[in-house]
Amino acid sequence: MDRRRFVQHSLGAGLLLTGAGRAAAAAAPTLPAARTLPEAWGLQLYMVRSLMARDVERTLASVARIGYGEVEFAGYFGRSPAEIRTALEAEGLTAPAAHLSLEELRSSFDEAADAAAEIGHRYLVLPYLAGPERPGNDGATGTALVDGYRWLADEFNGLGARCRDAGLVFAYHNHDFELEEVDGLRLLDVMIENTDPELVRYEVDFYWLVHGGGDPFDYISRYPGRFDLCHVKDRTADGEMVDVGAGVIDFAAIFERSDEAGLIHYFVEHDTPGDPIGSVRASYEHLASFDG
């Protein structure tokens, strides 16, 4: 299916999201001539973690054969940075980003930065706030909870400065809990508005953004240029996580606004696929049709 037919099919099938999404897509029913899609689709390797735990090299080879050009790490499965670099080079892959916990960033930043330099990462991404790290874990509500996210944003600015000094970029990956509204403010908005755009970028997970009640088009409009990375993760109308193309998120319309969003890297993900490689392949084939 060529790009124009794909978008027309999506519009006809009613795959658009909220009002802002409908308006954005209606204004641009086909993908623009300018390049807004990535040079290479990426994969978050958390999706194949069970396979990575058994054989890193073989799993990377399988990913490359499907057609992916980039990967995002979530652990190195006992391999050294040099071994990871060698495995990537053998398959013609690059790894622009890696996920690290807040504890790792706090306690082992220098080691993480050294590994990133060896492997070739550009971004260190905080993927999740564990219970004790999350504002509100102490029972705070209302203004106190919002203030907790402002203090967290200050820490992110500090991590961003350390990354900048190491030649890296710090980014934060959302789930749905950041979409909670407190005293008229969404917590994700508090984080974005209190982090320095020069120091902190965001990896938008489209499934979790929509699942939490957010509108991708609204976030792109209000925070242009803040989303260097994204997780291309699909969702059915009733909330099930599915392979890309099997849900209702209109990625064609979203990617029309890639330049406005600031998107550079696009990583396919499904948290719990029944058949990891089958899911990886199905999502890739759907996205490859965009280039049709």
Descriptive report:
This protein has one domain: Divalent-metal-dependent TIM barrel enzymes (TIM Barrel). Strands 1-2-3-4-5-8-9-12 form an eight-stranded parallel barrel. A two-stranded antiparallel sheet has the order 6-7. The chain contains 14 helices and twelve strands. Residues about 1-35 have low confidence and may be disordered. The protein has helices spanning about 5-10, 20-25, 50-55, 55-65, 80-90, 100-105, 110-120, 140-165, 185-195, 205-210, 215-220, 250-255, 260, 275-290, and strands spanning about 40-45, 70-75, 95-100, 125, 170-175, 180, 185, 200-205, 230, 235, 240, 265-270. Helix 4 runs parallel beside helix 5 (about 80-90) and helix 5 packs parallel to helix 7 (about 110-120). The protein is of the alpha/beta class and about 290 residues long. A hairpin with a 5-residue loop joins strand 10 (about 235) and strand 11 (about 240). The longest helix is centred in the middle third of the chain and has 24 residues, at about 140-165. The relative contact order is 0.16. The protein is globular. It is about 45% helix and about 15% strand.
- What is the third-level CATH name, the topology? TIM Barrel
Biggest sheet details = 8 strands, parallel, barrel
What percentage of the residues does DSSP assign to strands (E)? 15-25%
Rough shape? Answer: globular
Q: What order do the SSEs take from the amino end to the carboxyl end, as H and E?
A: HHEHHEHEHHEHEEEHEHHEEEHHEH
Residue runs with pLDDT of under 50 for 5 or more positions? 1-35
Q: Please give the number of β-strands.
A: 12
Mean pLDDT: 90
CATH superfamily: Divalent-metal-dependent TIM barrel enzymes
Q: Count of DSSP helices?
A: 14
Q: Domains counted in the coordinates: how many?
A: 1
The percentage helix is 40-55%
CATH level-1 class: Alpha Beta
CATH architecture heading? Alpha-Beta Barrel
Oligomer: single chain
Distance between the termini: 6 Å
Radius of gyration: 19 Å
Structural class: alpha/beta
Strand order of the largest sheet: 1-2-3-4-5-8-9-12
